[in-house]
Amino acid sequence: MSRDMTAAAIAAIARSETPRLALFVEGQFESGALRLWSGLRPISWGGHEWTGAGQLLAVSPIEESNGVVAQGLTVALSGVPLDLVQIAIDEARQGDSGKVWLGMFEETGALIADPVFLFGGLLDVPQIDEGDDSCTISISYENQLIDLQRPRVRRYTHEDQQVKHPGDLGFEFVTTIQNQEDTWGE
């Protein structure tokens, strides 16, 4: 991952045997962006305020491969009060974006340079596991490459072209020329 790290982050890792790491998670919802990080207090970074979620925030392992593979990710928030669950259900929209960064901190607690971007994807389906007083909300994000696996149902016809681009006459004569026989050189 060093290909995306700033010089300050690489130097901090070299100075410390156990660098202090944190995850930053941003999810888009109907009412706007939700920004959480794995610390306890609010923090400012990238022009935004990030809410500390501490141990309540969990991110599934991020896998990287050499091939072109659509790897997904799950972000879980536990300890959510039951009265806020309906809000989470109503606000989550399939296809909304989600991003994850890895940040490092100095011994003083200051954030080092810019966190490293780890993952960006589209919201798939939220899952809710209810307990007695609180619950866990897990949101799966798909890599945008998953869109390559979806079939495209398009035709090279005048009617299909009108659906996407009304008034475009580029396919107007497709049906008339498909059975036409032309003789060349006579």
Describe the protein's architecture and organization.
This protein is mainly beta and 186 residues long. It folds into two domains: 2-149, no CATH class; 151-186, no CATH class. It contains four helices and nine strands; from the N terminus they run αββββββαβββαα. A nine-stranded mixed β-sheet has the order 3-4-2-1-7-8-9-6-5, with helices on one face. Strand 1 (20-29) and strand 2 (32-37) form a beta hairpin. It is elongated, with a radius of gyration of 24 Å. The relative contact order is 0.17. The model has no long low-confidence stretch (mean pLDDT 82).
Helix/strand layout:
Blueprint: H1 7-15, E1 20-29, E2 32-37, E3 43-45, E4 48-52, E5 57-59, E6 73-81, H2 85-91, E7 97-105, E8 116-130, E9 134-143, H3 158-164, H4 174-177
Parallel strand pairs: 2-4
Antiparallel strand pairs: 1-2, 1-7, 3-4, 5-6, 6-9, 7-8, 8-9
